[in-house]
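Lecture 7, part B: from sequences to assemblies.

Below are the input chains for today's worked example.
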Amino acid sequence: MKLVRYFPVAFDSIASNKMRASLTMLGIIIGVAAVLTILGIGRGASESILGEVASQGTTRLTISPVTETDGEGAGSPVQTLTMGDVKALADPAFHPDVVEVVPQYAGNLQLVAGSNNSQVRVTGTTAAYADVLRLEMAEGRFLTEDEITQMSNVIVIGTTVASDLFERTQVVGESVRIDGEPYTVVGVLEESGNAGFGSNDESGFIPIGAAHGRVFNVPRYRGEYVVTSISADALSEERVEAAELQIEQTLRLRHGLNAEDDNDFSISTQASLLETIDTVTGTLTLLLSSIAAISLVVGGIGIMNIMLVSVTERTKEIGLRKALGAHTSDVLLQFLIESLVLTLLGGLIGIAISYGAALLVSRIPNFSFDLLIGVDAVLMAVGVSAGCGLVFGLYPAMRATQLDPIEALRYE
Amino acid sequence: MPGPSALIDMQEVTKVYQMGETKVLALDGVSLSIEEGEYVAIVGTSGSGKSTLMNIVGLLDRPTDGVYRIRGHSAGDLTGRQLADLRNREIGFVFQQFNLLARAPAWRQVELPLFYAGIARSASRRRALETLAQVGLAERADHKPEELSGGQQQRVAIARALVNRPSLLLADEPTGALDTRTGEEVMALFEKLHAEGLTLIIITHDQEVADRARRVITMRDGAIISDLRGAAATTASGGTNGLREPALAPLPRPAVIEQIEEKVYEAG
Ligand SMILES: Nc1ncnc2c1ncn2[C@@H]1O[C@H](COP(=O)(O)OP(=O)(O)O)[C@@H](O)[C@H]1O
Ligand SMILES: [Mg+2]
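Predicted structure of the full complex, as structure tokens:
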């Protein structure tokens, strides 16, 4: 079978019905471009969030107290995680895979500078916090070991706090007041850019001792100040699980838990966070895929309509071709090639449009993610559209070839 | 009695059209035999079944009942491919309503049968143009149907019917849309080809056209009411059977077609 023979016939037919051809292609273009763009947005957003999380380090562990399940304090955190735990966890003999242990005590406070004031989430912590949390400084520096041990009146603030209080961000050396007591600003954090996830723009950091001893009214447990959470760094990504076990063992021992008792703390790792985010973005992708599927159906219906509108004309044409001696296979091959040419051309244009959109998006400054167009999405979109073109183009043709030529010629 | 050697042989052929509840008996037990090389005119009032009969002869339609044989092969026993090859190489069909492709230029229309005969495009374009020249449309080869008059469209359809050098030409009112002069030219071309062996069956309203045939079949209400040959035909239709000088040069019959024909008959 010399397939090449049918190409000129198919091209003639397309060229002599430009309207029908372009409308069919339009359906495919819309379907393919919409699917690829929508899926590209979904994938781009997911990758961007996952990248953000990964950039904050994949070795970090966060230990937080569980919440009280009964009694009058139900719903609030159990007050058993203390500075004693922090000191114990810092012992490398029992925790060979844990390299840094950083306590945090956080609460909301009012900061005042001149006549300005700002509600800020203030965290008491240690110098290592900046390393473990991968904080970048815009101005000055983070808290130092000396300042921690001396419980100095110093503070590091986020950019939003700085501009709220001083209407500018170069504020190192300025003074802010907490409960009337002055704190010297020693550093301003780099702006996070994206509001929300992991942003420190509206935070303040002071030495843990100042938080425990002066600023907050912190309860004690077995003689040690309570903390709201502990951050730790594992030796490496591979040692995260080992570090988690070592921490768990120490804390259970220190908290006097029996074998049958549940942990009164929880340890979350970046890996588990990534998993959670994966499920969230999975749901997002599913949602976007449904929208994409709808666009494909819309495109498909468009193609079907054009094909059905021209069924009468095409049936007559098939009747004539058969009357002039066309075999059924001649007719079907011509129609097959016509449909293939249209769908592939439409598919290519659709792909080009969505890549154009991706290029455009990547040029937008400050736009937090790129459009990611996967080969699987391209194959699916083109496959479905081409399927529509073939089914709706070939089905009427197949029916028409079953008719006697004169019946097809008289078809209304 | 007509033997099985006849080119066309019909026995008690009926054709019933089902129109919802009512049935239309378009052919009512037609028996007919036409030998190779005959020149037959079919006349009769409108609705008498002439076109229906012609469609069955041209293998475009099937009888509801009865047997139709072409060169001894029962049409009902032929496969789709054999029917297609016979339509392509044996039969030239000129439709009452032209049936041209809406948006294709004249030469493309004429080329179609050559494409389905498997002839290469370069050769087929040349043949299509030659055949168009023979019906006087050399200048109009690139024109689409909408740019042609009714008579010109009919001549494109005639060129298309003749381009594959059929042995049987079926023409349903071929001169109906033509002016007297071009009608004359087309008839002269037909008769020239007939003189070379083409079997000619023409449906016509035109008494002058019928007068030129060697055999005149008259139909009414789906049946043949008279079938007159030779002098009788001439006398019956009241005209003279004057043969004219052929106006156009003969067309060579390509060897490739004859080869394929042999295959068709071996298969059939
Ligand atoms: N496709 C059809 N459906 C129903 N009736 C038809 C059809 N074609 C022809 N007829 C009917 O069959 C009869 C013969 O028609 P036709 O063969 O076209 O006659 P003619 O060509 O002699 O004018 C007419 O009564 C016509 O109405
Ligand atoms: Mg008729």
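Note for the exam: The beta strands of chain B are 8-19, 22-34, 39-44, 65-70, 73-74, 91-94, 168-172, 199-203, 215-220, 223-229. Keep this in mind when comparing with the next example.
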